[in-house]
Amino acid sequence: FHAEALYLGKQNDEAxxxxxxxxxxxxxxxxLTGLEATLLREKGESVAATAxxxxxxxxxxxxxxxxxxxxxxxxxxxxxxxxxxxLRQALAVDPKSLALLxxxxxxxxxxxxxxxxxxxxxxxxxxxxxxxxxxxxxGYMNADRNVRVEEALALVQKAVELxxxxxxxxxxxxxxxxxxxxxxxxxQAVRRALEKDGENAVILxxxxxxxxxxxRVGEALPLWQKALKGEDEEAELxxxxxxxxxxxxxxxx
Length: 253
Description:
Blueprint: H1 2-8, H2 12-25, H3 30-42, H4 46-59, H5 64-76, H6 80-93, H7 98-110, H8 114-127, H9 132-145, H10 149-162, H11 167-179, H12 183-196, H13 201-213, H14 217-229, H15 239-252
Helix pairs in contact: 1-2, 2-3, 3-4, 3-5, 4-5, 5-6, 5-7, 6-7, 7-8, 8-9, 9-10, 9-11, 10-11, 11-12, 12-13, 13-14, 14-15
């Protein structure tokens, strides 16, 4: 709807006005309520935002969709224990929800509880073996940790087969190929990702690492520098590590 389009376009003030107008007609709409809370949180009005999502929970304390939206709010706010508790409450009602299991895996991964996250993702895949988002997340998580990299590569390859247009999946493929030292193919995949999402900080960082491994440190340096200025809405970029690579590259050059 219009408010979400404005939000995606980073027109947050206009989006907030639009979502409030829409909520006058649909006061209990879960997506509108969650979007208003997100916009308020991003404006720094965390108390008001939390009050909105908790009021939504109070109106429907056993509705898995509502609980999933509440959990998503807390995840984006960095309140991971609250997000996890809410998701487990939702899964008690709907234990076979692919969306809830995916959310739980992501929240556990953010808490660096990788074994628990993997268990949630594998439970999701048991329900839906061809879920590209789950295949990609599990494959990328393990490739990034350098764990079971051949299986990780197979998982992200399947995700790419299911959705070849996804920049995220192409990047995951490139990173998994990097982990198994197939550097030319890795560079090609990450460059495909960058064609689709040229300002993504993590993709830029990955390409920097790959070309540096291939002996082109002079080419890697501006990629890492650009990564620090790139888009990183989920705060996934390890900024201290990138800064260290920049210093090392500058010294080498």
